[in-house]
Amino acid sequence: MKVRALRTGLASFAVVVALTGSAVASRGAEVPNIPGERELVVLRNGTRVLLCRDTTSSMVDLAVWYDAGIRREPLERAGLAAVCQRLMFAGSPRFPAGEHLRRVGAMGGDVGALVAGDYACYFQTVPESGLEIVMQLEADRMGTVPIDAAHLELARQALRIERRQPAAAAPLALGLRALYGSAFLQHPYRHPVLADDAAVAALTVKEVQEWYRTHYAPRRALITIVGRFDRARALALAHQYFEPLRSSAGAEPKAPAPDPEPNAERRSRQSINVPFHVVLLGWRGPGAGDPDLAPLLVISQVLSGRDQGRLEHGLKARLASVFMTGGDFEVRKDASMLFCAIGIDQAGDSARAEHELVAEVERIGRDGVNADELDRAKRSIESRLVFDWLPVRTRALALAGSEFFNGDAALVARDLERVLEVTTADVQRASDRWLHGRRRNVAWLYPAAPSSRPSAPRGGQ
């Protein structure tokens, strides 16, 4: 059995399922569509069931998605999403702690959880014969997990251990945390998934109970069933196990207040236990549905693509002190973040490296991209996304993301079409609108020794 706890959204899917906006003109060639026969059924209690049947698959993926991501945390109460995720594995009325994992493992299945900016997901990929068992398991813990002082303390301990794992202390993870913290001042997106010890310790049993009761209610849940299964049997099981569940009374949660528009560059510095410097640049961009998301995704590919990315094959080639480049584009419901990063040898000129990194991004706004570069970027995005639609787990992620962001899982292919329709003028317009200095966030990570702190060529906040 594999047990996975995924901490951040997959940026490729987060982008492609959030592009819906104005109509798209056909490009003449057929755009690939996500495999499988899709259908959405709403149960009497409000739970949505999204089916994608594919007889070519060897397994079936069942996942339950809740509107319980960081976006729903009160600004002064970080950590609720992560705490509730840990509590979901604390046992349920019929199945004690550990029984969920044991039963899925006995089938040779894969089980795990994902907490992201906009949702929480609990999934299991099993043989078709195991579909009823995992439906029982998920239905039994929907809205019924134990939340008391003892279980809350166990969740705190689990988070404390996870924060001390190498992945949580990786330079890119720390840098992204700093970028989100500076880019969002009033929106919960500034919260890290793995909140600090102090924030988690401040949560009370009552606060966790109330947040869980609101956001883990059946009427706020989406169930995806993707892969090999019998449609009639799957729907009968959904009606049998999920439809009798009831949501507690309560008002719908309000959308978080938007952040004000930034008016100056924001900078942060942090010492870490590595023998090199890392600088990340991040620009807060639009949320789901904005027409500039597609060209921003293309810009990210032009900058940070593995094969022909400008950072790897341009900036890194010019500066011998730069040994690592990277970047991505993450889209959430209310906003997005385009970021890029470089690693710099301790003896390198860090101020020059940052200057060159900024210049590389600004060059797109000034000079644009040529037709060949644009076409390579779009084809790379298309290949990656279409390939990732094949496994049932990542296909479920794409479909659920489109349902969350767009209100319709069927829009995934139309969103890909928007990427393929991006023009050089679109790239330049999006760059001018979003990738300027007032929206820029800079996060420096430097070795713990005080003498190793990098110099900075610019001011700002």
Automatic annotation (TrEMBL):
Residues 1-25 form the signal peptide. This is Insulinase family protein. Residues 203-380 form the Peptidase M16 C-terminal domain. Belongs to the peptidase M16 family. Keywords: Signal. Residues 48-166 form the Peptidase M16 N-terminal domain. Residues 248-268 are annotated as: Disordered. PANTHER family: METALLOPROTEASE, MITOCHONDRIAL-PROCESSING PEPTIDASE SUBUNIT ALPHA. It comes from the Bacteria. GO terms for molecular function: metal ion binding. Pfam families: Peptidase_M16, Peptidase_M16_C. InterPro entries: Metalloenz_LuxS/M16, MPP/UQCRC_Complex, Pept_M16_N, Peptidase_M16_C. It comes from Eiseniibacteriota bacterium.
